Every structure is written in C-alpha cells, then in structure tokens.
Amino acid sequence: MKSFDKWPLVKSYFEMDSPIQQQINSFDQFIYEKIPEIVKEYEKIQCSNDITVELSNIEITNPQITESDRTTKQKLLPMEARCRDLSYSGSMHLDIKLYRKGILQDEKKAYIGEIPILVKSKKCNLYRLSEEELIDVGEDPMDFGGYLIVNGSEKMLVTQEVLSVDRILVHETDAKVVSSEVSSVKGAFRGRVKVTVNPDGLFTVLFPASPKKFYLIELLNALGMTKEKDVLEQFEDEKVIQNEVLLNLEKVPCVKEEEALDKLGRSVAPSQTDIYRLKRAREVLDSFLLPHIGQDEKDRKKKAYYLITMTEKAIEKVYNLRKTADKDHYANKRLELSGRLMENLFRSAFKAFTKDLKFQVDRAISRHRKLNINTIIRPNAITEKIMYSVNTGTWVGQVTGVAKYMTPSNYLTGLTEPRRVKSALDNSRELYEARDVHGTHFGRLCPIETPDGPNCGLTRNLALMARITTETDADSVIEFLEKTDVKI
Q1: Is 360 in contact with 388 (CB distance < 8 Å)?
Q2: Element (H, E) at 422
Q3: Facing residues of 157 across strands?
Q4: CA-CA distance, 373 to 387, in Å (whole number)?
Q5: E strands, 101-173, where?
Q6: Check whether domain 169-318 has CATH 3.90.1110.10, yes or no
Q7: Which of 2, 130, 301, 386 is the most exposed place for a label (fewest CB within 10 A)?
Q8: Contacts of 49 (CB under 8 A, 6+ apart)
Q9: Is the dihedral of CA 120, 67, 381, 392 positive or negative?
Q10: Rounded to the nearest 5°, which phi and psi values hold at 150?
C-alpha cells in the first residue's frame, strides 16, 4: 500500500495562515471589540455639584507622525519608527459630553492619548500589502509581525499561561476538607467563590465582600430559594447527595428571603438601619457573588443553581465519585495572547484616566473655574501608563516579563519567540509538578523547546501546528441556546 505524503498538507497549512496569526487576531479583537466594551463600563462619571461626564464612541487611528512644524504625515511605517526611535502607535479620540444638572455644557471629540499598534494587525499601515509593496516601502516581506515598536525598539508580548476562570475546580486539603472553587471574573473584578463541605457535613460558602463564611442554605434563601422542597428538587436525585442536603436542611432550617438578607446585612453592614442592611446585602449578592453570571436581580436564581452545582461536585468528591481537579491539565488552563494582555493594561489605564477626569472636574469646581472639556483632560494619563508597562514589561498585578525585546538574529527567532508561553508560577521554587511534561501537553506544547535550569517546564513553546482561538461572546451562544429551547 502506497504511503500518504503528508508534506503538501503541512505546506498548505502554513500557506493558509501565518504562525503568528493568533497574536494578530487577538489584538484585532482587542481594538475592535474589547476597547469599546471597556469604554462602555465607564461611560458615565458622576462628579460633585450634579456634574456628569459621558464618554462614548472611541476611535483609534492608524499610526501617524506629527513633525515639529505641526504638519501631519498620513502614515508612519514600522521602518521609519525603528530608524527615528519613534513609537508605532495610533491616536485615540473619544466623544466627551459635560452635563450640569442634566443640561449639556460642553461636548467635543477629544484626543485622549496613544496606544501601541501591533505590526501587521488591521490598524497597521502594512496591512494587506503585497510582497512588492512591502519592498517598495522598505519593509521585509518575510517579517511575520506580531510585535510592538516603542521608542524604536521592537517589543514582543509573551503569551501568559494562567488558570482558567469561571470554571469549577474541586480540591481536597491535607485535613480531608473538600471544597469546590471558582474564580469569577467580570470586567476588572476577579473574585474567588468557595463552597466547602465541613467535617460535620455542613455546607459553607465564602465569597468576596463577605467577612465570614455563610451556610449554603442561608445563601440560597437570600437568593430567593426559600422552600425546603424547592432546594431538594434542585439537587441531583442521588441518595448520597439527597442525604447530605437533608442533613443541612435539618441543622439550618429555611427562612424567608428578607430574614436571610438581614443576616447577611448584619455581617456586611453592621450597626446600620434595617433598610440600609437589606439594601447593602442585595448589592453584595448582585455585585460580588459570581459576577460572571450577571449582576442584576434577575440573575439571583441562576447564581443559586450554580452554587448547587458547585456543592454537588464537592459531595461527589467526599464519596470518591469524582477526582480532585488537576491544575496542570490543559483543560484547566488558558493562554492570554497579545489582545488579552493589552485589554488588562488598557482597562487599568482607562480606569486611572476616568479617576483623573473626576479629580480635574472637582478641582475646577473648588477653584471656581469655568468648566470645559479642554481643561479637564490630561491625554498623557493613558499614554504614560501603557508605554511604561510595555517598556518595562511590568503588567497589571505586578506580573513581570510580559513584554521583552525582540532579538531577530535570524529568521527562526522571529518565528519562535512570539510563540513562547510563560507560566505565572514562581520560578524560584524547585518542586513543582508543573515543570513536568503533562499528557495533555501533547500536540499543544513542544516538550523539547524549553530552557534548562530553574525555568525548565515553566517557559514553553507552542507546538508548530498548534493554534489558539480568540474569545467568543457568551451572549450570542446563550441566545442561540434559548432559541433552540435548551434549558439554561
């Protein structure tokens, strides 16, 4: 039997897409989808004296250059940026409206700063140029792109390997205490929710903004599930699970929703009035308990169902019907590409910009100055924060080594460096199972391309034919499931 020649297939695979295309796709998603989402998160800024600032419609230009005589060239090319020690960045403009007691005082499309542009992305001036056109403008037609140029230096964003968020992981401590955890993320907020099966059989829940653990039954009551029959029906009809739930219902009887909310309010807002306690308890449940599910009152029942699922998984582990989560399994990992990394950085910088905007408004009012948009905007606020992080490689959360200098000594260097993957684990410790090759790495990571010494197994490279998908909008998936009558 004649063997199948695989090389034409491999060749066509690499002709179809660049090996760096995933970095470019991720950055494009950041520019066209994530930046407008972040602006929408901070679209209204409430200041003193009934002054409101509204932000909308952010626009980012292709890289341009302004000469000393203030004449603007329409295009800045990467080669010119390298030669003249310039930053290859686009200008950001934002629609800003200033209201006082609901009356429009001033509006303007204002310049708010610069953002670095990834070479060969859609905002790059080299996008879709042919080989001949690239040669004509002095660029290397064999250059894959996928890096930034800041002050004339080529900077690469190293893909970060992190533990998956919004995913239930079951753990067991040395004291045989089983817990079910999820790292819930909504925008810039990240909070860990933990459901524990205690040695006495009672279920407790710990979540951000709660000063102590709460019994699961109490939390379900506060979320609107107040009848024992309803609670039992939502758990699986398995004997071991039903017995554990009945034990909890016996020791922690169900109460009315307001009583459960009041108990929560006494912890999060002690020594306050009854009305304020109830209000604060509802705010805490909506904002800090599983925010990735939603942050509205209508999402409380969904949160109750999610807590029940977490509890079921923990009970199954207690009876050895389920294994503990393997943190080294690649299903429990996510890779943050250039777009995700820039999203985290831009969100932090834009939040600082909005705080500075509020400060400038309040200061102008206290000094009895006339308010207008030109006097309250400090464009360098965003630019300085982003450029500092890209220059130093120190990212949000004091993560280091995210951005590093490109060393294009040969053709292969520019191909392999953007495909490097860095673990978030501390490389100073020695006894990490994470340093070993895991079975789920096969076909995804290259077990050979890893450095010697203490970084062995913590700095990896993607396999040559591995691809990373970009983030998908969950709302469109949920909408499709609802249309097909799938119960969510």
Answers
A1: no
A2: strand 420-423
A3: 403
A4: 24
A5: 103-116, 148-150, 153-157, 159-163, 169-172
A6: yes
A7: 2
A8: 100, 365
A9: positive
A10: -125, 120
Q: What is the pLDDT of residues 443-469, one digit of tens each?
A: 898 877 777 777 777 788 898 888 898
Statement: residue 488 has pLDDT above 80: no
Cβ neighbour number for residue 460 with a 10 Å cutoff:
24
Spatial CB neighbours of 288, under 8 Å, sequence gap ≥ 6 = 189, 191, 207, 208, 209, 210
Please give the radius of gyration of the chain, using alpha carbons only, rounded to the nearest integer.
27
User: Collapsing DSSP states into helix, strand and coil, what is residue 55?
Assistant: strand
Q: What is the pLDDT of residues 257-304, one digit of tens each?
A: 999 998 988 888 888 888 888 999 999 999 999 999 988 888 899 999
In the numeric block, which tokens belong to residue 318?
């207690």
Gap between the Cα atoms of 102 and 267, Å rounded:
37
Cα-flanking dihedrals φ and ψ of residue 365, to 5°? Answer: -65, -45
DSSP state of 197: E
The helix or strand, by DSSP H or E, that contains position 481, with its residue range, turns out to be helix 474-483
Half-sphere exposure of 103 (CA within 13 A, CB side): 4
CATH of domain 7-162+333-462: 3.90.1100.10
Residue position matching structure tokens 């859609």 = 122
Mean pLDDT score across all residues of the chain = 88
Cα gap 439→432, rounded to integer Å: 16
Listed by start position, the domains of the chain span 7-162+333-462, 169-318
φ, ψ dihedrals at 131, nearest 5°: -60, -45
Phi–psi pair at 199, nearest 5 degrees: -55, -30
Q: Dig out the tokens for 480 from the structure.
A: 């499709």
Give pLDDT tens digits for 309-347. 999 999 999 999 899 998 888 989 999 999 999 999 999
Angstrom distances, CA of residue 357 to CA of 92, 229, 249, 349, 368:
16, 52, 51, 12, 17
Predicted local confidence at residue 309, as pLDDT: 94
Tokens representing 364? 């102008």
CA distance between the termini of the chain: 51
Extended strands (E) in 48-152: 51-60, 65-66, 72-73, 89-100, 103-116, 148-150
Following DSSP, what letter does each residue of 395-436 receive, concatenated? Answer: -TTS--SSEEE---SSHHHHHHGGGEEEESS-TT-S--GGGS
CA distances 408 to 156, 405, 417, Å, are 11, 9, 9
pLDDT of residue 386: 95
